[in-house]
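Incident log, structure service

09:12 report received: a user says their structure output differs between two submissions of the same chain.
09:20 pulled the input from the user's history:
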Amino acid sequence: MKKALAMAMSTCLLATSLVGCGSNESKQPEASSTPAPSTEAAASPEASAEAADPSAVSGTLRFNWWGGDDRHTATLEAVKAFEAKYPNIKVESEYGGWDGHAEKITTQMTGGTAADVLQVNYDWLSKFSPDGTGFLDLESMGSYLDLSTFSEDVLTFGRRKGILNAIPVSTTGRSMYFNKTTFDKVGAELPKTWDDLLALGEKFSAQGLYPYDLDTGSGFPGWYNSIVYMQQKTGRLFINEDGTLGFTQEDIKEGLDFYKSLEDAKVIRTQEQRSNEAGTTPLYQTPSWLDGKVAGVLEWSSSIGKFESALEEKGQELVLGNLLTLDGAQSTGWFMKPSLLFAINKDTKSPEAAAVLLNYILNDPEAAVILGTTRGIPASSAAKEALQAAGELEGLAYEGTKQIEDCQPIIMSPYLENSIMKEIYKEAVEAVSYGTATTEEAAATMYEELVDTLESIAQ
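09:34 re-ran on a clean worker, output below:
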């Protein structure tokens, strides 16, 4: 068994259980070149069924999510408002940061102790519900959960084997965001092409600064950046629609070469430099980000708020950059996916109450205004209209989401974020950065492991 596969399986086996919840708040830590989803609402019979009276529903629910402080604060406020509106339903909140969260949820799902309502990641559907029965069929809750506010294209992201396992909160993609304060200080313009980005290294390094960072603690952003570049260059998908690897071994080598060129040009720091400064601390919490030493990041539009808030507190301004490209690009290269999804535990003892909570979080205008864009721009037409009326459809989360939607994005395969796959990316990027392998050697290992892993998970 390959090293990455063994490590990831070991992590799952050794993951420890979540701490039990407190009274009401327990703080715990398919690819194609299809255009952006249409806005035509879904019209399934279940979704349009006559609604039952949600005020008559009672129960106690556990509600689990991850995120940053902005998301926690807003979600807790929304839960409080929900309990005021539906006093017969009590909600116990379980929340924390991303670090270690997936391993804890794996333990809970395996042990049958997961929360009633869960915020889930895109790749979790294939992991926890390979046959489509791992979560509650949400179309069975049509009397309490209004699905007509979502387009069928958006709901497709949450289907597994045709069964609606989860509902996307929003769609998202990674864009480039830059510290305008630092760029102004250096006297540099925001890059428009990959060559522009490479050329910035010399100008920034002369002042001990870096124009960009890939937040490569997980290894994924560093490789994501190279995937976009190589998809543009070759026109090939990294992962094909059928779940097979689309890149050749030579494509992977070129992608790793491109990553290394960013380090060599002093556009980004090396893995060792990042590790020596802050270990695995998220970039937005590090001195280099807060002091403007690192002036750019590749981040999901649904998660950019924490980077923006951190700089605002220091009197600095974060702005949306361009989607970089190259001459003769064969495709846009950039991805779109559901940012987050919500699912209901198939074993919940209170499915109706869980559906009422989910409907409130996704569709209620009151909740929409409270939650804002902490999970991205809502996919629900009702929530989006509420934010529009409140004048809140603005800011970096909105700008980044619209930028991706408008660029004819590639729909990201759910397998791209699989935990085993991400471990493979991480090992390859680290090997190249630390010099323990050439890009040719790392590519050979990476190619073999990706093929084997995709064969095992894309069943």
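09:41 both user submissions now match this output. Likely a transient worker issue. Closing.
09:42 reviewer note: The longest strand covers residues 335-344. DSSP finds 18 helices and twelve strands in the chain.
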